[in-house]
Amino acid sequence: SSAFGNAKNGTVNGANWSYQDAAVTADAFFYKDPAPLYCAQDGATGPSVTVSGTLDCPGDKNREGCPCPSAGTTAACWPGQRANRNHGICKDGTATCTASTEFGLRWGACNGYVLPTPGAVDGPSACGCFSSGKWQLTDLAPCIYGTGASTYLYSSHLDSAGKIVCNTVTSTPPATPPEAWNSSTLNIDCAGQFKLCYTIKAGDVKNPQAGDCTIVHLCVDTWYDKVGTPQPLPNLPGWSSPDSACAQKFVSVGGYGEMSVVGKSVECQKIDDGKGAALVFRRTSYCPPRCLDTPTTAECQACSTGGSGSF
């Protein structure tokens, strides 16, 4: 069979012929507009959309001019590609069922929808999975311990009042604090299996370099299934970095935190940088410790010790 019907062939007066009848198969609903696949947590796969209706009026889109149930009824409508629906900036519109003497009950215009930005290949404007949302972390602040020429960084934690606390250091490098560094929640536009990582580096957040040294790199692997709802993630643990040289650079010039992700959405889309490596979707700025004394100076305006990574 084909997308549009059943192929038939035969011979008439010695000539071969073939044609396709007008029957519409299920595949026809997705011609040039395929439905995303569904990749379950257990590895099972299958189609994500079951569509009724006709080729011109598939039941999942409520297209203008197509039959509708009763006058005054409203419903979500979508004139774009199924793969972009409800991701990033993309959102459904609303159609209203209207009656006319000529055509009967028909959906009216789809109003209020948002399509992908023409030419966009990534980010919210491209409307792919994991293109908009928030990774909210309660504490991103590192603690600094200096012993003469040596400097070290280790994790802080929040006390019962929500205040950032640094444990007393009794060894060099500092022992790993027993308390979790932070808790976090994830709220994004599609479900799936995602490995989220937070990395602190020394360098300029406005001009990150491949050679910027790493203070710490921590990850959490999670199955996210509550689309559009904050879902708690496992805590990022306490840590201590033995890299004194990198810590000294962090203290001198400041640093930044990278939020990255790699995984697969429930719609079977690979989430990476396009080359199989983790996608950095957010960078937060850390400033030199002197900004604690001079927070209003120009270099300290964009400083951050914690918070969220919206994208």
Topology:
Elements: E1 7-12, E2 15-20, E3 37-39, E4 45-47, E5 74-77, E6 93-100, E7 104-107, E8 133-137, E9 142-147, E10 150-155, E11 157-158, E12 164-165, E13 182-188, E14 192-202, E15 214-224, E16 231-236, E17 240-241, H1 244-253, E18 255-265, E19 270-271, E20 279-286, E21 307-310
Antiparallel strand pairs: 1-2, 3-4, 5-6, 6-7, 8-13, 8-21, 9-10, 10-17, 11-12, 13-16, 14-15, 14-18, 18-19, 18-20
Brief summary:
This protein has 311 residues and is mainly beta.
Features:
311 residues; mainly beta; five-stranded antiparallel β-sheet; 1 helix
Tally of DSSP helical segments: 1
- Report the major sheet: 5 strands, antiparallel
In round numbers, the mean pLDDT is 84
Structural class: mainly beta
What does this structure look like?
It is a single chain. This protein is mostly beta strands and about 300 residues long. It has 1 helix and 21 strands. Strands 14, 15, 18, 19 and 20 form a 5-stranded antiparallel β-sheet that branches. A 4-stranded antiparallel β-sheet has the order 16-13-8-21, with no helix packed on it. The protein starts with 6 loop residues before the first strand and ends with a strand.
